[in-house]
Amino acid sequence: MKKSYKNAAIVVALLGLSGLFYQFTTIEKVSTETGYHIKNIDFCGERVPVEIVDVKERLDRELVVNMNLHSATTLIIKRANRYFPEIEPILKRNGIPSDFKYLCVIESALTNATSSAGAKGFWQFMPETAREYNLEISSTVDERYDVIKATEAACVYLKRAYAKFGNWTLVAASYNRGMAGVERQLTAQGVTDYYDLYLNEETSRYVFRILALKEIMNNTDKYGYVFSKDELYQPVKTKTVAVNANIDDLQRWALDQGINYKLLKWYNPWLIDTSLIVSINKTYNILIPTEGFKRK
Description:
By secondary structure, the protein is mainly α. It has helices spanning 2-37, 53-67, 70-93, 101-108, 127-132, 147-165, 168-177, 179-189, 201-218, 250-256, 261-267; strands spanning 42-43, 46-47, 238-243, 284-289. 54% of the residues lie in helices and 5% in strands. The strands form two sheets. The protein has a two-stranded antiparallel sheet with strand order 1-2. Strands 3-4 form a two-stranded antiparallel sheet. Helix 7 (168-177) packs across helix 8. Residues 1-36 have low confidence and may be disordered.
């Protein structure tokens, strides 16, 4: 019996080593392919100067990191199938390049995340900035959690930043550092390009993280992220109910709409209380799912 255990242990160890060997050779193969493709990459049509050594290596770092964050990257790709169709038309309508959807990806992984600093939602607005861009934050509503309204607000910021810098890469960096912060560093260092700036680590990595996710999400098969249509999260059909009066009990109201409170919150995360207070002349559009919520 002891000999059998010993033999079994040897087999397991050999299988483990072979698995590691396969993993390492697979990663090496992907890395080699990646090295070829990063010779030509752009952000919003603005070429990335990968012939500069530090630029190439900083991009490579983010590619290596993100293509090996298997669970996180898998979920991002699945969510993108649902949310990009909502985000892309808003960007287009506002004259914002489609590449900025990847900024949204690195900000929140396409979730209504909350940062340690208090930024919330897909676009990670801080409270004061949200209010500046006409997103309501009250005791019962936080529109930072409304992907449509938050994307519209982000577009206003991005257009203002482009009017200042005339360069989309600097606009992206300013979303992290702030317009004043980027402008201050450009002036102090006497340069005009993001790739020539020496910045704090977060902002220094920021655009490269966007580029890495863009590369991986546009070439999922190459990086080993292969999914059937059914595995991706599909857009869900909803109807809109316009509300211009207070709702004292959203739990009861949800039942009256033929759904439950869980679904109401799931599709309307900007409703942050069990009631809704509506200001004079204000109307809220509440989404009610019309499919995918009933048991078979």
